[in-house]
Amino acid sequence: MIRRHTAKVHSVVLLLAIAMVVHAFTTSAAMGQSTIATGSIQGTILDSSGAVIPSAKVTIRNKDTGQTFQVATSSSGAYTSGAIVPGNYSARAEAQGFKTVEQAVVVRVGETAGANLTLPVGSGSTIVEVEGPGSCRKHGAGQRAGCSHERSD
Questions:
Q1: How far does Cα 27 stand from its chain's mean position?
Q2: Residue 47's Cα: distance from chain center in Å?
Q3: Phi, psi of 85 (to 5 degrees)
Q4: What pLDDT is recorded for position 91?
């Protein structure tokens, strides 16, 4: 009778040990999933002729929290935000001798949002907001602000 009781205790202990190991693995897997709940922004900064602008300053701002950070474009005019939390952002590009351009960007989990910006030649005191295809807003010294999709004949 004692042997039968000891065998049952060993079985219960073994089942508990297996349950603890399974719980440890599933908990760490679930925690690992939370680290991939990010997205990113990447793009290229060009001038109005289509040439890349290296070393342009790109400011990325989370519109929901107000948090900002800056990155610089590479020698090929490219930039990336790295992993960021999903939300509503703005990408603002500026470089010496060019007008500043800002575009709204929505970042979703697991996606890379594109924000390619074209900087018109001119003073940095004018900010061009790109809101979508066929629309622009300008701020600043009252000058005509060009957008990447405008043409002058």
A1: 28
A2: 22
A3: -70, 145
A4: 97
Q: Which two tokens stand for residue 101?
A: 């351009």
Look up tokens 């602008």; give the residue.
53
pLDDT tens-place string over residues 105-115: 999 999 999 99
User: Which residues touch 1 (CB under 8 Å, ≥6 apart)?
Assistant: none
Phi and psi based region of residue 16 (left: phi greater than 0; alpha: psi -120 to 50; beta: remaining): alpha
Q: Which domain holds residue 2?
A: 1-35
Rounded CA gap, 126 and 40, in Å?
27
Residues 6+ apart with CB under 8 A from 148: 46, 48, 101, 117, 118, 130
> Number of helices and strands (H, E) in the chain?
1, 10
How would residue 123 be classed by pLDDT, with cut points 50, 70 and 90?
confident
Q: Is 144 helix (H, G, I), strand (E, B) or coil?
A: coil
How many folded domains does the chain comprise? Answer: 2
Q: What is the CATH number of the domain that holds 68?
A: 2.60.40.1120
Nearest to 69 by CA among 55, 58, 53: 58
Pair (85, 68) in one structural domain: yes
Does this model's pTM top 0.85? My answer is no
